[in-house]
Amino acid sequence: MNNINSHNCNLNIRYDLPDEVWDKVSKVYERMPGWIGYKSGVPYWFGSEEEDVFIEASVEPSGLSFYAQMNIDDWVSWIETFKLERQKCWALKLVNLKMDICDESLVPSPNVPLSQQERWIADLVASLPSMMLKERHMKAPLQS
User: Fold this and answer.
1) Residue 106: helix, strand or coil by DSSP?
2) What's the pLDDT band for 117 if we cut at 50, 70, 90?
3) Do β-strands 54-60 and 63-70 pair in parallel, antiparallel, or remain unpaired?
4) Higher pLDDT pick, 62 / 113
5) Amino acid 85: pLDDT
6) Rounded CA separation 2/71 (Å)
7) Cβ-proximal residues to 142 (8 Å cutoff; 6+ apart), any chain
């Protein structure tokens, strides 16, 4: 069905995360289907507000917010792809952190207060695919 409807999605990607994280989010933007670019600082996919079909994003105090006008099937496919791409990017960073690979682009800035670093890491862990977490539990030794 080709009914064009409005859709919203707010993701728990906080506005106050380090610039390193937002740089990675921008890279995910560019890999997404329909990427057009920025118009007045706003990222767009497929078109802009003047067109029938478009997706735009904004950073709000509650997180990264998407607004879309398109059919529901295309929207669900697109936003799930975004979430998966974000998880891949952040899961790789977390794996590198756990392996003590020292790459300045992968770790939070030392100038960020500890509580903000803790939130940053918590967001990384929360965004890991559930299968990775299940795999870890399956490898745990059996208890008698």
Assistant:
1) coil
2) low
3) antiparallel
4) 62
5) 85
6) 6
7) none
Helix 72-98, helix 114-126: angle, nearest 10 = 120
Tokens of 92: 């790789």
* Strand ranges for 1-91 from DSSP E: 5-11, 35-39, 42-45, 54-60, 63-70
3-state secondary structure of 60: strand
How far apart are the C-alpha atoms of 76 and 80, rounded to whole Å? 6
Q: Is the pTM of this model over 0.90?
A: no
CATH fold of 5-138, please?
TATA-Binding Protein (3.30.310)
- State pLDDT tens for residues 29-66: 999 999 999 999 999 999 999 999 999 999 998 889 99
- What are 97-111's pLDDT values in tens digits? 443 333 333 344 444
Whether residue 71 is predicted with pLDDT greater than 60 in this model: the reply is yes
Residue 89 CA to residue 22 CA, distance in Å, equals 12
Exposed/middle/buried for residue 34 (C-beta within 10 Å: 0-12, 13-18, 19+): middle
Can you tell me the distance from the alpha carbon of 51 to that of 80, in angstroms, rounded to the nearest whole number?
23
